[in-house]
Design goal:
The complex is a heterodimer of chains A (about 200) and B (about 300). Chain A is an all-alpha fold and about 200 residues long. Chain A has helices at about 5-20, 30-35, 40-45, 50-75, 80-95, 100-110, 110-115, 125-140, 150-170, 180-190. Chain A has one domain (about 55-190): Tetracycline Repressor, domain 2 (Orthogonal Bundle), CATH 1.10.357. Chain A is built from ten helices and no strands. Chain A starts with a helix and ends with a helix. Helices cover about 25% and strands about 15% of the residues of chain B. Chain B has two domains: about 5-175, Rossmann fold; about 180-299, Cytochrome-c3 hydrogenase, C-terminal domain (Cytochrome-c3 Hydrogenase, Chain A, domain 2, Irregular). The chains are: A mainly alpha (about 200), B alpha/beta (about 300). The interface of A and B includes residues 149 and 151 of A.
Amino acid sequence: MDKKSSKSEKILEAALLLFSKNGFYATTIPDIAKSMGMSVGNIYNYFSSKEKLAKDIIKYSSDILGEEIRKVNEQECSSEEKIRKIVTLYFDMASVKPQHINYFLRVYLANKEVFKDGCEGMLCVSAFVTELMIFFEEGVAKGELRNQDFFSAFGLFMGYLGGFVFLNGEGVLNKNINDYIEDIATNIYNALKQQ
Amino acid sequence: MSQIAKAKIVWLQGLTCNGNSHSFFNYPQMESFDTHFEVLYHPLLLGELTFESLLASHITFDFLILEGALSHDKTILQKFNHSFEDVLDNLSKRAKHIICAGSCASYGGIFRLRDEAKITGALFSGKNKGGYWKEKRNVINIPGCPLHPRWLVDTLFQLIKEEKISVDEYLRPKEIYSYLMHHGCMRNEYFEWKVDSKQFGEKEGCLFYLQGCQGPMTHSTCNKILWNSVSSKTRAGSPCLGCTEFDFPKKALYETHTNMSLPQTPFGISKRAYYSLAGIAKSFKIERLERKLMDEKDN
C-alpha cells in the first residue's frame, strides 16, 4: 500500500469511529481532523467532502465484511456450518470492531439522503452482498437450502443479525452476544434449510 | 474441360426427426455444393443407390453423415430389417470422415432422454465420452437442433480442401463453436443493464433472466451466421435453448432456472465476477432501456 492509500485508510478508520458513535450530521470534518492530529485542509486532499467520505466508508466496511464471508465461502463445509461461521464472524466484528456494524445500521441505513447519489442500490455494499449471493446460490445448488427469492433469504439472515447487534448496542441483552451464536445459527439454518 | 472429382456423401439416419436433413436442404448455395459433392445415398432423396445396393456395394466415400441418435439395441433401432450395428459397421469402415450432423448424432440429444444407457451419440453420451463407439479417430460433431446448413457445408468444404479442422473437447469445429450465441446478440445492451424482456417476440429486453435464454453459455454462431441469412432465435424474440451443447435438451426450456433468484452465470465467468457486476448494473434504472424502441407517438 502506498503512503497516500495508507493515510486514506487511516482517515476512513477515524471517520468511521466518529460517524458510528456520534452520527453523520453531528460529526464534522474538523472533528475528524482533530482526532487524527491533521489539519482540516489536509483531510480535503484525500476526500473532497464529508459525503464522499461517508460513501467511501460504507464501501470500505462492505469490503472488509465481504472478504471475511468470502473466506467462509471458500471453505469445504456444509451450509449449516457456514451459517454458524458467518454468524460468528459478524458477532465478532460487532464485539471487536462494532463501528463497522454500527455505521451500517446507524449511518448508512438511517441517512439514505447522504448516499442516494453514488451508492444507489447495491453499489456501495456490493462486495458483502455478492458473497451472500454466492453462499445462498451454492447452498441451493448443493440441495442444502430451500430455493426461494434471494431477498426473502437475505432479509431473514441479515435482518436478524443486524437487529441482534442493534439490541446488543442498546445494552438490553441478558448475555454476551457471543453466547447467542449457537441458537441464532440454528434458527437461521432451520428457517433456510431444504425441507 | 475436365470435370471436378466430386466428394461422395452417404447420409445415414438413426433415431431422428429429419430436422437436420431439412436444414441441410435449405442450404442457399446448393448449386455450388452440387458441383463439389455427390450424394450417393440419402434416405429422403432419390439417389444413385438404394439402401440395399449401397450395403451390397464396396464403394468407398468421403463422408458418412450421421443424423439422429444411435443405439446397439435392435429393439430400438434397425434399418430395413438389418440390424443398425451391421449397417453402421459396414458403412463406417468405408468412410474417410464421419460427420455427426446435429445434437442427437453428436450427444444423443432428445432421444437419449428415453434411455440414457442405450441411446447415445456416436462418441458421446451427453457430456461423457463413450457413446455408440468408445473411440474413433475420424469423427467430427456438428451439433445443433438442427444444425445450421452452413456449419455442415463449410466443414465439408474445409475437409475436401484437406484443411486441418481444429476441434474442441466435444469434437466441435472451433471455427464455429468457439463463439457463443451471445456474441452478436442484438439484445446485449439489455443484458449489460439487466433489463428483462417481459414476453416473447418483443424487440426490447434481455431473454436471459426470465425467458430461459442460454445464449451466454451456448457455443454457436447463430448471431453471426444468421438463419435463412436473416435472423436468429434471439433476434426474433425467442430464447436460445442451448441446442448445440451436450446437455441439450434441459428441462423447462422457456424458464430461467435460478437458485435463490440467481441464474447460472455466463460461460467462463465466475459467480463472484458476475453477481458483482449484475448487482451494480441492477442498481441503476436506465430510462431509455425501459422504453419501447419505437415509440408509438410520431414526431
